[in-house]
Amino acid sequence: HALKVSWTRVALERMAAGAPGNFGYSLFAASKADVQRLREVHLEYVRAMQQIIAASKPGECVGLYCAQLLDLASTTNALDDA
C-alpha cells in the first residue's frame, strides 16, 4: 500500500509541475455491477500493458502508469469484494 501511495505522489508532483504525459479523470455514476465490470476492464488493460513492457527492448525509458478506480461510497462499496 505504501508503495502505491508513494508512486501516486510522484505522479501528482509531476502533474503539478506541468510535466508532459497523459493525465485525466472521470467522475461518474454507475451501477455496482458496472463498477465491478470496469475493474475487470482495467485489469485487462494492465495485463496487456505488462505484456508489451515485458517484450520491450531496449529499455530506453522509465515510465509510470498510475491509475485509480474507486467507488467513493464509504459503505457498501462495490469494490470491497473485488
What is the string of helix and strand elements? HH
Binned, the helix content reads: 40-55%
Stretches where pLDDT is under 50 for at least 5 consecutive residues are: none
Mean pLDDT: 91
How do the strands and helices of this protein lay out in sequence?
Blueprint: H1 2-16, H2 32-55
Q: What's a quick, concise take on this entry?
A:
This protein is an all-alpha fold and 82 residues long. The chain contains two helices and no strands.
In words, what does this structure look like?
The chain is built from two helices and no strands. It has helices at 2-16, 32-55. It starts with a helix and ends in a 27-residue tail after the last helix.
